[in-house]
């Protein structure tokens, strides 16, 4: 049983059919599978924009309590476990979510699974594209009738093929797809054919890392080990996906990452969030005192400046007169 066949959620089936319908409508305007996926990605990111703004507001609240966080770090600097407990208690008291930097990635997983069910037509049943749509008719002619259709290709890649299938020519006819008939894919031949697939997979890994790292660096010090581990594991996990998922799905995730990186950079700058706003990044660091400028004068005995001593001397002379 595939993800798309899970019977317990009519709402989930509605989401799959709805996204498939929107993708087909975009394809009617821009008859290229890859470009349609990119435009659908932009539309999804715009719908999720309010969540990104809410995330930034949460980070602003987290930033506001950083002086108290540093006090806790300084107080329990010899006890890391107690330090983490007290910081989490502080976050709870102020209604702050320390995992806010993870949400942009985690919230995309349901949509990623939905896009997998829509794009991975070869392995999925039932079909989530309208049967009378131009998109499905073009894909159907390619996988069942073995027609050469440039609309399913984008920058040299067949959006239905994986990086592992690239360069192997037309795949063997196997029974599958929505009609459960013998199908085959033309994934190109030769080593050069594999280059765009591999480049896209690498770009997927890099952008996934940059996206999570961007929010980790913008988050104040004292992050949980779980959040730090997520930054390391996510790129590795998506590295596997990048070579085993259809190129169309890899394109969706990469385009979504690029959009998210730009959106986060803009919102973080607009919200004045980052190391320059919350102070020293070193855990337990005390706030820096005022810098000694050129106008500072050396102190005399008793902590008094030479100018103050001169003024006292003048007052004494006037009294004697």
Strand content: 5-15%
Summing up helix and strand content along with how strands pair, one would put the structural category as: mainly alpha
The helix tally amounts to 13
Radius of gyration: 29 Å
How is this structure best described in words?
The protein is mostly helical. The chain has one domain. The protein is 60% helix and 5% strand. The chain has 13 helices and six strands. It has helices spanning 10-29, 33-47, 49-64, 66-75, 80-93, 103-106, 109-119, 134-144, 191-218, 225-244, 247-270, 275-278, 306-320, and strands at 153-154, 157-158, 168-170, 174-176, 181-183, 186-189. The strands form three sheets. A two-stranded antiparallel ribbon has the order 1-2. The protein has a two-stranded antiparallel ribbon with strand order 3-6. It is elongated and about 70 Å long. The N and C termini lie far apart (106 Å).
Quick tags:
mainly alpha; 60% helix; two-stranded antiparallel ribbon; 321 residues; elongated
Provide the fold topology.
Layout: H1 10-29, H2 33-47, H3 49-64, H4 66-75, H5 80-93, H6 103-106, H7 109-119, H8 134-144, E1 153-154, E2 157-158, E3 168-170, E4 174-176, E5 181-183, E6 186-189, H9 191-218, H10 225-244, H11 247-270, H12 275-278, H13 306-320
Antiparallel strand pairs: 1-2, 3-6, 4-5
Helix pairs in contact: 1-2, 1-7, 2-11, 4-5, 7-11, 9-10, 9-11
Quick synopsis:
By secondary structure, the chain is mainly alpha-helical. It has one domain (8-278). It is built from 13 helices and six strands.
């Amino acid at each position: 049983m595939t993800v798309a066949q899970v019977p317990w959620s009519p709402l989930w089936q509605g989401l799959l059919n709805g996204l498939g319908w929107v993708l087909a409508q975009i394809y009617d305007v821009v008859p290229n599978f890859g470009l349609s996926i990119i435009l659908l990605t932009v539309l999804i990111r715009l719908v999720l924009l309010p969540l990104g703004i809410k995330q930034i507001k949460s980070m602003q609240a987290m930033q506001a309590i950083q002086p108290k966080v540093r006090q806790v770090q300084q107080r329990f600097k010899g006890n890391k476990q107690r330090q983490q407990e007290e910081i989490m208690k502080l976050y709870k008291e102020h209604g702050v979510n320390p995992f806010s930097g993870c949400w942009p990635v985690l919230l995309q997983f349901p949509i990623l699974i939905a896009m997998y069910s829509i794009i991975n037509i070869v392995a999925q049943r039932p079909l989530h594209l309208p049967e009378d749509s131009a998109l499905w008719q073009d894909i159907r002619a390619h996988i069942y009738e073995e027609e050469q259709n440039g609309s399913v290709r984008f920058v040299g890649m067949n959006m239905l093929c994986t990086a592992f299938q690239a360069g192997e020519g037309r795949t063997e006819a196997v029974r599958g797809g929505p009609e459960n008939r013998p199908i085959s894919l033309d994934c190109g031949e030769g080593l050069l054919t594999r280059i765009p697939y591999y480049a896209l997979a690498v770009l997927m890994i890099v952008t996934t890392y940059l996206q999570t790292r961007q929010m980790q660096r913008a988050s104040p010090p004292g992050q949980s080990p779980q959040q730090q581990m997520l930054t390391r594991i996510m790129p590795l996990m998506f590295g596997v996906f990048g070579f085993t998922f259809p190129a169309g799905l890899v394109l969706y995730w990469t385009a979504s990452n690029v959009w998210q990186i730009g959106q986060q950079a803009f919102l973080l700058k607009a919200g004045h969030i980052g190391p320059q706003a919350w102070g020293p990044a070193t855990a337990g660091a005390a706030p820096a005192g005022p810098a000694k400028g050129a106008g500072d004068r050396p102190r005399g005995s008793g902590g008094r400046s030479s100018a103050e001593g001169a003024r006292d001397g003048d007052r004494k002379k006037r009294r004697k007169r």
